[in-house]
Design brief:
Number of helices: 11
Helix content: 25-40%
Shape: globular
Oligomer: single chain
Strand order of the largest sheet: 8-7-9-15-10
Radius of gyration: 22 Å
Structural class: alpha+beta
CATH topology: Chorismate synthase, AroC fold
Bound molecules: ligand EPS
Number of domains: 1
Distance between the termini: 23 Å
CATH class: Alpha Beta
Strand content: 15-25%
Order of helices and strands: EEHHEEEEHHHHEEHHEHEEEEEEEEHH
Number of strands: 17
Length: 376
């Protein structure tokens, strides 16, 4: 069984993950992991923290000479900023009072977290809730992507919209990998310019912006996931994986909410055959029927809300004094949609790897590849 656990605080020593269940014999491309970490740090609208960090993965266990051993893989992404925060964050002993955060931010985990975990210093909550955690999820996701790619399952995605600036075009899987821009991971360069202008406007106003991301999976054969229990449903599992990413407020599979506006004949994908196998004339279901893959491409979309740390500070209540206050703001991203695209691909890779491993099993990659090849 494949399982992922992460640990680490935004200004703690670093971010860590344990990946259980990877078969032996997977040759890792470590440069590809660092390339995804660099992609997560870049993109128009990112904040000052990314100038401090230069994220790299360090493999601590489970890999020998670049190849998995079948034992748990432990990885680390160290926080450079810890040096500036040691006095306030050190697990061995520190005085955090100078970095206490009580002007809780609407939309962040601050207040709900204080109500749950107690105290008046939201730093104890936000350090873990911060999207900094996604750095190590991206590293883990890239390892799972390499596991999936070994038997021919590939993942891609792009930013479909920023605020009101939305791309209505359809793109082929291979077009996306070749065509998306590093600026905002968008496909349409003209639209991307307009999106950058929107971000500039939000920055000038001390505000933030979200957007929509589309994800695709190619090469997944029919029958992954199951209709037999709700826990095994592929769409439910993948939606949960995407919703687990900070700032995600909505997930669609295929046509998603649009299916509710159309007649059945304009929603369901008619089935055809070449005499040997089956296929669908359209893919409005996004490759999932009855909670199982149907052999078509998976198509998922996720909506990211604007980041809740606003430089202009929304109106709030100070959790210590109980007086009205302006929400805390030191630094943040104006728009982290391009980073979110990288993170969502990683989250998808993690869950899909778990789904595939449950069906394929296998102690070593040769076994896994053979079993996948034997499926129809
Ligand atoms: C992030 C690092 C954080 C934030 C951001 C994501 O760094 P810092 O808090 O030191 O500025 O920039 O986190 C948030 C948006 C948030 O609300 O917590 C990163 O590495 O992605």
């Amino acid at each position: 069984m494949i399982a992922l656990t992460t640990a680490g605080e935004s200004h703690g020593k670093g971010l860590f993950a344990i990946l259980e269940g990877l078969p032996a014999g997977l040759k890792l491309d470590l440069a590809a992991i660092d390339a995804r970490l660099a992609a997560r740090q870049s993109g128009y609208g990112r904040g000052a923290r990314q100038k401090i960090e230069s994220d790299r993965v360090e493999i601590l266990s489970g890999v020998r000479n670049g190849v998995t051993l079948g034992s748990p893989v432990a990885i680390a992404v160290w926080n450079r900023d810890y040096e500036a925060w040691r006095a306030y964050m050190a697990p061995e002993g520190c005085d955090g009072s100078a970095k206490k955060l009580t002007a809780v931010r609407p939309g962040h985990a601050d207040l709900a977290g204080l109500e749950k975990f107690g105290g008046t210093d939201a730093r104890n909550v936000l350090e873990r809730a911060s999207a900094r955690e996604t750095a190590v999820r991206v590293a883990a996701g890239e390892i799972f992507r390499q596991y999936l790619a070994a038997f021919g399952v590939h993942i891609t995605g792009y930013v479909r919209g920023v605020g009101e600036c939305v791309d209505g075009a359809e793109y082929g899987f291979d077009e996306i990998g070749a065509g998306r821009s590093p600026v905002l991971q968008m496909m349409d360069k003209e639209l991307e310019k307009r999106a950058c202008a929107l971000i500039d406007g939000a920055k000038a106003a001390g505000d933030t912006l979200g957007g929509v991301i589309e994800l695709r999976v190619k090469g997944l054969k029919a029958g992954f996931g199951s209709c037999m229990t709700y826990r095994e449903k592929l769409d439910a599992r993948l939606a949960a994986a995407l919703m687990s990413v900070q700032a995600i407020k909505g997930v669609e599979v295929g046509l998603g909410f649009e299916t509710a506006r159309r007649l059945g004949s304009d929603v369901h994908d008619e089935i055809c055959t070449d005499g040997v196998g089956f296929s669908r004339k359209t893919n409005r279901a996004g490759g999932i029927e009855g909670g199982m893959s149907n052999g078509e491409e998976l198509v998922l979309r996720a909506a990211m809300k604007p980041i809740p740390t606003l430089m202009k500070g929304l109106s709030t209540v100070d959790a210590e004094t109980m007086q009205g206050a302006r929400a805390a703001a030191e630094r943040s991203d104006v728009c982290a949609i391009s980073a979110c695209e990288v993170v969502l691909e990683a989250a998808l890779c993690c869950e899909l790897a778990a789904v595939c491993c449950e069906r394929l099993g296998g102690d070593n990659m040769e076994e896994v590849i053979r079993r996948y090849g034997e499926l129809k």
